[in-house]
TrEMBL record:
Classification lineage: Bacteria, Bacillati, Bacillota, Bacilli, Bacillales
The keyword DNA damage appears for this protein: no
Pfam families: zf-dskA_traR
Segment forming the signal sequence: none
ZnF endpoints (dksA C4-type): 88-112
Protein name: General stress protein GSP160
Domain Zinc finger DksA/TraR C4-type: 83-115
Keyword terms: Metal-binding, Zinc, Zinc-finger
């Protein structure tokens, strides 16, 4: 069980992180063509458009990360209110204070977090392939996959000898 002084320390730390993430979200709004001094994208060189798209992707990624952290911080502040802060949501064991000092919104002990991350990683891995599945029922032999076309005709990275 955490003492009141420790809870106050972590609450202050979480509030500070919340303020920082809110500021990141507010100041990192997606750019429009007007932000680049353009009225439209029609007259842009493709390299300029690619740079703008990359900037927007980076901003989007930063916003998503900040929103995720903000959500985690809000949950941690709720756990402080409920009296469950510092207790692993999976195992019920106390989360080490050293872990909370590094990651104040941690909700699992390290071992439980590793299991959680491994389960999430294994569930999202999907084998992507352009090959025609062996059980394909279309029946049209004229359809060819990218792999078959590359083998038959070659391309810049795959040449028939």
């Amino acid at each position: 069980m955490m003492r009141e002084r420790e809870l106050t320390y972590f609450k202050n730390k979480l509030v500070k992180i919340k303020q920082e993430m809110t500021k990141v979200i507010e100041t990192n709004q997606p750019l429009s063509f007007e932000d680049y001094g353009e009225l439209s994208s029609l007259d842009n060189h493709f390299a300029d458009t690619a740079s703008q798209l990359e900037d927007r992707e980076v901003q989007s990624s930063i916003n998503e990360s900040a929103k995720h952290i903000l959500n985690e911080v809000d949950e941690a502040l709720e756990r402080i209110q409920n009296g469950t802060y510092g207790i692993c949501v999976e195992t019920g064991k106390d989360i080490p204070v050293d872990r909370l000092k590094i990651l104040p919104y941690a909700k699992r002990i390290l071992e439980a977090q590793k299991r959680f991350d491994e389960a999430a990683d294994s569930s999202t891995q999907i084998e992507l392939s352009f090959s025609t599945p062996e059980d394909d029922k279309r029946g049209d032999q004229r359809l060819q996959t990218v792999d078959e076309l590359q083998y038959e005709h070659g391309n810049s990275s795959f040449r028939i000898k």
